[in-house]
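Narrative of activities, Objective 1.

The group set out to show that a structural description can be obtained from nothing but a protein's sequence at a throughput compatible with the screening campaign. Below is one input-output pair from the validation batch, recorded exactly as produced.
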Amino acid sequence: MKQQHLAISLKPPTDFASFYPGANRLVINSLKQITPGDFIYLWGASGVGVSHLLQACCATAQTIHQRTIYLDLKWQAALGVELLEGLEDYDVIAIDHLEAVVGISHWEHAIFHLYNRIQAKQHSFIVGAHVAPMALELQLADLASRLKAMLVLQLKVLNDADKLFALQQRATQLGLDLPTDVGQYLLNHAERDLTHLLSLLNRLDQASLRAQRKLTIPFVKQILAT
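Output recorded for this entry:
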């Protein structure tokens, strides 16, 4: 019986428009121009947006009626390598958090064979990880060589000015006003990776709607304390 794949819904917003590139404009442009047969390895520190961009690639491909699939190995590897069966039939295949299966022999072999099947189909393969391919410490040398042959793109961490701009851009998309002093307060008093900051902004948006209050430093202090 052919393996049935789980339906993975993309968490909005996961498009390119909702991603502030900062110093990563060349990387974003490369991802926007993916064509059939492209193999891309995207990596960056936790919180810089690798997962967002993998999903943005899938979302963009769907707008031109391509079949896509996004798998996050951080959460789904426990379900077994059977998840990879038949993925080569999709036009765009995105596999996130590759580091989660490094050192697990059957997973390394399964990804190696998937790579070859995708290549034979001339479909697009995008891999996401938190480290560069040469730093993965893979057991399977053949997989290591395949990954190093991909187009390797690194996402750089945004500086504080870019993080503030990204927060204000997302706030505008939410219909929320984020004054500069409030945004700076978040940068100084919350976890500094952008993924956490954007999640916190969503929380503040909901709190603002419930309380019918604007975002001010006293209000943000109150929410952060709960």
